[in-house]
Amino acid sequence: MVPHYLRDQHGAGMSREAGVLASRDRKARNRLYSAWLRMLDFGTAPGDSPQQREVKRLVVAVLWLSIPSTSVWVAMNLAEGAPWGAVSLALVALMSVVTLAVIRIRPGAFSTVIQFVFLGNNLGALAQTLLFGGLIASGWNMIWAFLSVLGALLVSGYRVASIWLGAFVASVLLGVIIPNYWEGLYELENVTATAVANLLTVMVAVFLLLVYFIRQRDRFQRESDDLLLNILPESIAERLKAGEGVIADRVDHVSVLFADLVDSTPLSQRLSPTELVVFLDGIFTKFDDLADELGLEKIKTIGDAYMVVGGLPEEREDHLEAIAELALRMQDQIADHPAANGTPLQMRYGIHTGPVVAGVIGRRKFSYDLWGDTVNTAARMESHGVPGRIHVTGSVRTGLEDAFTFEERGTVEIKGKGSLTTHFLTGRRDHDGEA
């Protein structure tokens, strides 16, 4: 009987050996996968877009796979005593090899060189059709030429594909007409089986290409929708996609907040362009997150100013409370934000509430925007405010004094509005109404 400690050592050794073998298998698979990826990159160029690179890889994959598959058909033709049929297919395989070599050396010539593959495929299918006695007698071999149409559609677009479709139709007609005057050299033993194999194979290829096009369409649609949602609110984007011509709404109760970075001009002079953009992006991205958390709609950034609205595009009763909460959180965010090049950050904030007109303007680079006295007054609250403080109108205080605390600023001369009694929003009240 083997002692248990020897059994343990033997088991540990077997485990290590299995681990080493598994590691070798993974490395071998990784090397094969890397080699396959390098083979797919034949024909790709540094300046190719992701879509162009994907299409080229797909076509190159078909070329690589066509070489062994065509070789099988060459062997079958030789086995059936059809040497000229084998020659025609061998030439098609040779053209695939030459094409891969050429696009490896000159990837910029991909679109032109690949047309010769389509030509070779078309002529090869026609030769097989005529050698075996016509369209039906050859087991619908001509259907393989339709792959040239699909390939052209993928690589060159519908205009070039239309030319290849015409060539396919002409080849089919030749495959029907010529056998009336020439019987061909060979006869298939099982025409039905060959026809089924040819038709099924090509139909599967057609199906896979349709799946590819549909997935591409869906992906582009998602990307387009995501881009649109980065510009417009979701409900507005849906109205625009539905074909609504003029999108304009009057809403009686909304709240508007403006926030502007104080002394940004000296800051822009001290920072490089990249540093300035990264700096502002860091601030406004955090503001975007805060607005999303509170269900508010960012309208736009104007230089180093930020504009957001509550109560649009979906109306809500607590729009003023949400805007006040956002302003306080933005204030905290700026207080905690790292200084820019040694300079502490400060912002002015302005809030007003009332009616606005909202809509989409422009046909290129369109935007969702607000107009009206409410917008102008909120902007004046910000521009006539005090750095680091949230400047609000009397109507804002009236609507919020049960839930938030305020400090009266007094009478302020506001450009375009005259003398107004304004206030500073200072904080939140607790559930008991205490500050």
Molecular structure report:
The chain is α+β, with helices and mostly antiparallel strands and 435 residues long. It folds into two domains: 41-222, no CATH class; 249-428, Alpha-Beta Plaits. 58% of the residues lie in helices and 16% in strands. The chain has 13 helices and eight strands. The chain has helices spanning 4-40, 50-79, 83-105, 110-131, 146-155, 158-177, 191-229, 234-241, 264-270, 273-293, 319-336, 373-383, 394-400; strands spanning 248-261, 297-302, 305-310, 347-361, 367-371, 390-392, 404-414, 418-428. Helix 3 packs antiparallel against helix 4 (110-131), helix 4 runs antiparallel to helix 5 (146-155) and helix 5 runs antiparallel to helix 6 (158-177). The longest helix is centred in the middle third of the chain and has 39 residues, at 191-229. It starts with a helix and ends in a 7-residue tail after the last strand. The model has no long low-confidence stretch (mean pLDDT 86).
Give the integer mean of the pLDDT values: 86
Q: Determine the fraction of residues in helical runs and give it as a percent range.
A: 55-70%
Radius of gyration, CA atoms, in whole angstroms: 36 Å
The largest β sheet comes out as: 8 strands, mixed
Count of DSSP-assigned helices:
13
Q: What is the percentage of strand-forming residues?
A: 15-25%
The structure class reads alpha+beta
Series of H and E elements:
HHHHHHHHEHHEEHEEHEHEE
Number of strands: 8
Number of domains: 2
Which regions contain 5 or more consecutive residues with pLDDT less than 50? none
Distance between the termini: 83 Å
Overall 3D shape = elongated
